[in-house]
Amino acid sequence: MADIVIVASAFGAAHVLEQGHHAYVPVAASVGAAGFEVRRELLPAGLDGTVSAQLLAALGRLIAAHGLWAVYSTPATLYTDDGALDAAAIRGALAEAQILGARIVKFQLGGFAGDASAEVLAQLLQGWRPRVLVENGQQTMGGSLAQFRGLFDALESAGLADMLGMTFDVGNWEWSGEAPLACARALAPYVEYIHCKSVAGEGARRFAVAPAGNDAGFAAVLAALPGDVPRGIEFPFDAVDLAADAHQHVTWLKAA
């Protein structure tokens, strides 16, 4: 049975910004989650854009005290828009994740264009405690199947495939115009964490929703992916009875 992680934004991004991540850690623990995903964009930042090390350390201690393990989600990209490794962003996000005590740090891919710079990337990632994963995003850049296949092919060719894993976001593929099931079949060997959500609406009006219990397409994607990797809840909970809805979805996703 897979560990279930609750992504902080599932409690409502505006609420997390107002009340802080710490307000929702006890809720995540009480409804049966194993992990809690901290969102860097929902943390308070100083005038220079940095997040307080004291805040990160305190949040990490709170998460551990409630028997949870942490994921650190950052909007930082591995590659800049012109395809170069973003060494400064990588080091900064890794340092924050390590202060938090995260088990996983999740990056966006960015503008990878075929040159993985595998040896340089390996040097940047070496020596850090959190496991580094890269997530498919909602835009064509950083959200195409061809980019991810190219990245992992390049790492395998360099004998460095084990240094980096993937966060597979089921719903994000629909934003970027890819078929989630085809992507799952192609990328399953690299997947170490799954973001679970469905998508409603069209075009710019798309939004994340809970997968229906009878959604055969979502079930097929899960079946094509590793069954023993953590599954993250990224869709919004029902604010009318937030804890009850969270508990229901944690229980369902464990068994899905």
Automatic annotation (TrEMBL):
Segments forming domain Xylose isomerase-like TIM barrel: 27-253
Pfam family, one: AP_endonuc_2
Top-level lineage group: Bacteria
Name of the protein described by the UniProt record: Xylose isomerase-like TIM barrel domain-containing protein
Organism: Ralstonia wenshanensis
